[in-house]
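Dear Dr. H.,

I hope your travels went smoothly. While you were away I took the liberty of generating a structure for the chain from your last submission, since the lab meeting agenda had it listed for discussion. I wanted you to have the full record in hand beforehand rather than looking at slides cold. The sequence, exactly as received, is reproduced here:
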Amino acid sequence: MNILAKETNKISPLSPEVMDVYTAAWEHWVLPKDHVLLREQQVCDYIFFIKKGIARIFYHKNDREITEWFALDENFFLSIVSFFERTPSQLIIKLLEPSEVLGIHHNKLMELAASHHEIETLFRKMLAGSLILSQHRMNAIQFETAQQRYGRLLASSPEIIKRVPLSYIASFLGVTMETLSRIRSSR
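The corresponding predicted structure, in token form, is as follows:
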């Protein structure tokens, strides 16, 4: 079973027939480091799945880049507001290393969801999962110390330190590089 099917079934199992239709709808790209999947003010037309590689999701604020999320190997990602509201995105999605990426277009996913109840259920569960992740992120920012956020990041994605520049990690955690250095040296 390919990795897209395996990760999809973790969210909501699909019958073999529906899985065939679903996986056939995904486009496949092999892309270089620094490739931009979504530009600021572009409508997000795809839900992406990073088979291998890393994507950084970020935005500009006060002439700074603020990292919102990282999608590492075998993860789904998108600009959720833009995808669902069909409005220009404030987010930018850029690859941090050469990557193998899959994408399903909004129109194709809506068509499949309308004709296959299993895909509609999958879509609902994906949306719920994304909202839960966003709430966890917001809770972490509001209620955890920078040290706790760093510890959680290491626990959930230990390879991130080897593959993502520390400046992006500091931005994601909402701390300065100096604070991140202090946190790392105290561990």
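Two observations you may find useful: The radius of gyration is 17 Å. The longest strand covers residues 64-72.

With kind regards,
E. W.
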